Structures are given as C-alpha cells and as structure tokens.
Amino acid sequence: MIALWLRRPNLSPRTVRNCRKEADRFLYWIRAHGKQLVDVRYEDLLAFAAFIADPQPADQWISATRFPRVDPRWRPFCGRLADVSQLQALTVIKSLFRWGYAAEYLAANPAQLLTGMRAIGGDAVVRHLPPAAISLLLDAADVLQDDTPGAALRRARARFLVQAYYLTAARLGELASADMRSIRRDDSGAWWLHVLGKGSKRGKVPVTPALLAEFRQYRQAFGLPALPAPGDTTSLVLATRGPQRGASHYAIAAALKSVIERARVMAVQAGLIEIADRLSRASTHWLRHSSVTHQANSGVPLKTVQLNARHASIKTTGRYLHKDDAERHAETVATIAIRLPDAG
Which of 4, 7, 71, 158 reaches 20 to 30 Å from 273, CA-CA? Predict the structure, then answer.
C-alpha cells in the first residue's frame, strides 16, 4: 500500500523522500507495538504524536550517526523532533491514512480525528542565529583535525556550504540536487544561483562576490577550473571521498551539523553561552531562517527578501521581521512615560 501511495502523480523526489521517511518511522513504531496499519486506532495516533516529541528509550530510537538501514545500529531518529517537524510527520501520516481509506486498502481512517494540529508558523520566526554565530560557523568550518588531502577537501566544502546556504537562503535539498551550471551569470554580468524549489518551481538568487570567491576556491580545491563551463552537469556539492561524484542529501546535512557542533564547542570555550545555546538547538535549516531574518532586518526591501526566499506570499516573509530586544527596550524606555505636572 505504501509503495502505491508514494507513486501518486505529481510528487517531487523531495516529497517522496520525506513521505517515505515519515512512513518508515511510523511503521517501525507500530510494529514495535505489535501492530500493522490496519490495526491502528485513534489512541495509537495520539500515542505516536506524544512519542515523536521525545522518542524514548533513546538507545532504541535515536542515533546521532546516520547508518544504512541494514546496519543493526540504524535508528529512525537523529534526536528530538522540532515542533514543525512533528507537525510534518503527523501531516504525512494523515495523508497516508486518507489515501489508504479512499483507495479501500483500509476499512477506516482514524487519522481524520487528528484535528487542531497547528504549526508555530503564525508567529515570528525565532529559529535563527545571530550574525556572530554565523561568523563562528565559518571559523568552525576551518577547524579540522588533520592536514590530509581529505581534510583539505572537507574544509573547502564546509566553507562553501556555510556561505552558500546562508548567503542564498537555499533549502537543504535545493543545493543537494543542483549542478555546477546552477551558478552562472546573466547577460549583464551578474551572477545567480538557479534552483529547483518547492513544488518543482524554478527560482534564482543573487550570488554575492564573497560567495563567488568561495565557489572558485572550493572548485579549485577539488582540482577543477575556478569556474564551470556552461554545460557542466557535475553535482554542485561534491563528495570528499572516492571518485568525483555528488554528495548525498544526508552527507551534506551531516557535514553542516558537524560544523554547527564545532561552532557550539568554540562558543562554549569563548564563554559565549547564549550563542552556544542557540547553536545547540540549531538545525541546518536555521541557515535559511538566519539569512532571511538578517536580510529583512537590515533594510533590504521586503519584496526583495520575498523574491530571494522564494516565498509565495509576502506575509510569510513578514514573519522574519524582528525588533532586537535591546533596541526595542531602549526605544520604549526613551519614549513612554507618565509625565507629571511641574510642582508649584
């Protein structure tokens, strides 16, 4: 049934991958409880919703290292799921049951009772890093344990990944599926990153001089010319081991998570406790949130930020507008007061 559900028309590869991941997690959980899909009841779905907020026991469900599925050390989770990830998991499960019931593979659809699910999307986006943390990420990309050729490649790639994801606000899968010709200049000489985004929609994002310089150094580190030929279909993000090939979606995520963890350790060592705390909670997607947030709060016109983020609605972009707490506090204290009449 699940194989047919994943073959629904008009699904992008990214959607299929995410649906398969969430369905596999759910199947793994219900089988651990001695059930099959046809046995699932509403109370099981409630229990699963509570479980994914904190999968326990951790040694049975969580592994920070991503092992192949056939490896006995494989676990379905890398850690606790963020609020939006929990919502996505439940949304996928609802879709699975809705389709299974409509296709008459299931006699009932208990997931239709999962109402009232809400994301935190209506509020301001808070999953972002301050500029100082972004600088620390770039420093962390340079910190590797040895000077072997493999380490040099990982260093060059890590620096490129940090700058590419932050400076373009790209989603993780957008760069993972891109090739070298995705970075190219137009007739005016301006450089752009061309991506295939959500819903298979094509978009482009300006490439800054700093990112272009990093791109050139990254390519040269891998023994390639500084700039790609117009028809270069080599993967944009390269693997650092073996013959030249593209890095997988998971390898890219792992490389970024490694940089984030090194930056967290560096923040602790420097006594930057608040930054260390933010980094301890950060995911790879925080680079996108940080980019859009910093653009929106640095005077870039909101319409320009919307185009760079490729948001369908400017209301979504508006959620990234923040007033710095210290600035808000100072402005408020200086402005509002009860004016007492002069004595006498």
Answer: 158
Question: What are the pLDDT digits (tens) for 86-139?
Answer: 888 888 899 999 999 999 999 999 988 876 655 444 445 568 899 999 999 999
Pair of tokens at residue 267 = 């923040």
Give me the residue spans of the domains in the chain.
2-113, 131-325
CATH topology for 2-113?
DNA polymerase; domain 1 (1.10.150)
DSSP 204: E
Contact 74, 250 (CB under 8 A): no
Asked whether the predicted pLDDT for residue 194 surpasses 60, the reply is yes
* pTM of the predicted protein model: 0.65
Fold of 131-325: hpI Integrase; Chain A (1.10.443)
Chain-centre distance of CA 64, in angstroms?
16
> In a 10 Å sphere around its CB, with 0-12 CB exposed, 13-18 middle and 19+ buried, how is residue 15 labelled?
middle
Residue 247, Cβ density class (10 Å: 0-12 exposed, 13-18 middle, ≥19 buried): buried
Nearest alpha-carbon partner for 291 in 273, 277, 309: 309
The CA-based dihedral angle spanning residues 249, 251, 256, 262, taken in that order and rounded to the nearest 10 degrees: 160
* Region of residue 206 (phi > 0: left; psi between -120 and 50: alpha; otherwise: beta): beta
